[in-house]
């Protein structure tokens, strides 16, 4: 099969556990791009901390970010599509987080807002450093000039399991997905990586059979099942592996490079 587009999750897939893009993986993606294949990063991150990886590799094109809520052009940072969410509907979730000691942030396409950024716990500060983001003070709804695209709860695994279970019993006006062991995201009901990938591929006349997608977590399932070739990392949960066509090596063993060399570069 000849692939025209490769969609890649970032954390736990493209990057190793040290949040590094290895030289081997970078070189492999550049070689695939030189063959005319479009590389699209599809991340729970926002454009501001996804686009730099494309620039590091010297790649143009698009990134699908905030789990599909925002698609942006790399060189201009122009937003080409956005699923905006209704902010007022977040009030019960904000109240829950504040009352139960759950850290949360609210995202526009390029902005990230928290309660009292100067007083964040060390674990939360480290998380934002790893994801190359600097949180700002959450303003009043009326003072937010950009549409909201994602609400994220962050905390220890057991706490997030409890939050997911309890919110799952609510009548959710949003799409809820687990983007990592320690993250739960709420977005517009139609905002998924699969939906955004489908829109982008169709705009370029690319068929699903010409798309390869590689990911490692529950928020990647929609793009793995959309793509003609969906590949799960070895570090994926079993449900993600079951949704994929095959399983590659882990992110620490450069599974992305291995799959592209096998299926695209013919090595």
Automatic annotation (TrEMBL):
One of its GO terms (cellular component) is cytosol. It comes from the Bacteria. One of its GO terms (molecular function) is phosphatase activity. InterPro entries: Cof (IPR000150), HAD-like_sf (IPR036412), HAD-SF_hydro_IIB (IPR006379), HAD_sf (IPR023214). PANTHER family: HAD SUPERFAMILY HYDROLASE-LIKE, TYPE 3, PHOSPHOSERINE PHOSPHATASE. This is Cof subfamily protein (Haloacid dehalogenase superfamily). It comes from Paenibacillus amylolyticus.
